Amino acid sequence: MEPPDELALLLELAAEAGMRVRAAPSAGLLESGVCRVKDELWLVLVPSDPLEHRIRVVAGALRTHAPALLDSRWLPPALRARLEAL
The pTM is what? Predict the structure, then answer.
């Protein structure tokens, strides 16, 4: 599975888990991450961050905040291995 496909699948899972995905401007002062806004979990992704970093951010948020969703789904073996390596 190619990294862009991994990110796309992870973002689908994040949306299904109720996480809000937002793109931040590439101002150079921000980095992709997870934050809570009121009662919502937001994934803030900076397009200029390396693809691998954005994948780790989304995968980490899913492992931390939606493990039951991940456990209940079939995932491509390469993506499952990446998630378990976190």
Answer: 0.89
Q: Which residues pair with 36 in a beta bridge?
A: 41
pLDDT of 27 reads 64
Residue span of the structural domain in which 57 resides: 3-78
Q: 34 exposed, middle or buried (CB, 10 Å; 0-12, 13-18, 19+)?
A: middle
Which letter, b or e, does each residue of 49-70 get, where b requires 16 or more Cβ atoms within 10 Å of its Cβ?
beeeebbbbbbebbeebbeeeb
Residue 83 lies in a domain: no
CA distance 3 to 6: 5
The pLDDT, as a whole number, for residue 46 is: 92
The number of angstroms, rounded, from the C-alpha of 6 to the middle of its chain's C-alpha atoms is 10
Which amino acid type is present at position 25? P
State how many domains the chain has.
Answer: 1
Assess whether pLDDT exceeds 80 at residue 25. no
